[in-house]
Amino acid sequence: MKENQRRLFLKAITSIPILGGAVLAASALIRYFKPTTVGGVKGLVAPPDEAGSSIQVVAALSELTQPWDFKEFIYIRKSVEYSSRKIQGAKIPGFVVRMPDEFTDPKDPKSKFVVVQRICPHLGCTFNFVKSPEELAGGYNYKPPAPTHPYFACPCHLSVYDPTRKTDVALQGPLPGKVVSGPAPRPPRTMSFDIKDGQILITGTEGGGVG
Length: 211
What we know:
The chain is α+β, with helices and mostly antiparallel strands. Helices cover 18% and strands 34% of the residues.
């Protein structure tokens, strides 16, 4: 083997570990920005796994027949975790509320319900569904106008949300739960849902944290 050929051969051999390391680094970077459980080379081009896509029954329609009937629930949002556990579950408290007919669209059965995450957008406290105007005035420093109706209310910093009114939120559109008192910056985060076989099924959650 001539000297020049020998040098080229050695250069090619020594570059293999470097190229391998670069491929592994690129793979890790791609997985960070586009996580997926698909293994091998296919994982580099597979679509990312989506968090919060688990479907869960949280209420029966028979439990919510009258205006302002409500139910508390815990939704388990599942997402991919790159560890031996494979799946990570986050427990998200929520409310589903049966709205009075005057706040619904007769053509849309889903408009009869408001479904929200029970997490205050201010600092992440758990808020309540308060039916008593006296409790709102005494415990949350908010005197609702007549005619009164239930509100969502946070006991930590006294944010109060009106489920009959909506606020436009960037990238989301109008959402129920207009802030009528307190420091909360926006309405409660919502949950997407379907109605099937007499049940309400949560299909996902609005993303984002507090604030």
